[in-house]
TrEMBL record:
The keyword Oxidoreductase does not apply. Keywords: Cell outer membrane, Membrane, Transmembrane, Transmembrane beta strand, Transport. It holds the Pfam family OEP. It is found in: Cell outer membrane. InterPro entries: OMP_efflux, TolC-like. Gene3D superfamilies: Outer membrane efflux proteins (OEP) (1.20.1600.10). GO terms for cellular component: cell outer membrane; efflux pump complex. Its main location: membrane. SUPFAM superfamilies: Outer membrane efflux proteins (OEP). This is Outer membrane transport/efflux protein. GO terms for molecular function: efflux transmembrane transporter activity; porin activity.
Amino acid sequence: GYGTNVYHSFATGAVNPAFGRQFRNNSTEYVGVAINIPIFNRMATRNSVRTAKLGVRSQQLVLTEAEQTLQKEIETAYYQADAALLKYRSAEKALNSAQVAFRYEAEKYAAGRSTTFDYNDAKTRMQKAESDQIQAKYEFIFRTKILDFYAGFPLTL
């Protein structure tokens, strides 16, 4: 490092050297080394380590909770897809039954043994069964696409 001293005496009759001369003559150069070894830093390091360990443990718990939540969502999606498949199969059987019933009702109506009300009622039940079957089909497709998403497959139609 570099240092200098400059002074001025206000005493009467004192001889004061010029500022520039004082600056040159009173300069000093020095070299210093400083070392800091914390032996006891008020437990800051120990507390920092404990805080960091608690933070790591907290994040591990958050990760575990997220994994469990995801597992529940996947299981729920699987059971919903399974239920949608059963609903679709049931809707297909109901549609087949409604179609057979409508055919019989149409034959009875054509033969004059049935009323218009019974004919229209059978037709309406068949159309509702068709609607339910189509709805169940697309619900099953939707539920399987959710499972595909969780499995990492790209979503395509």
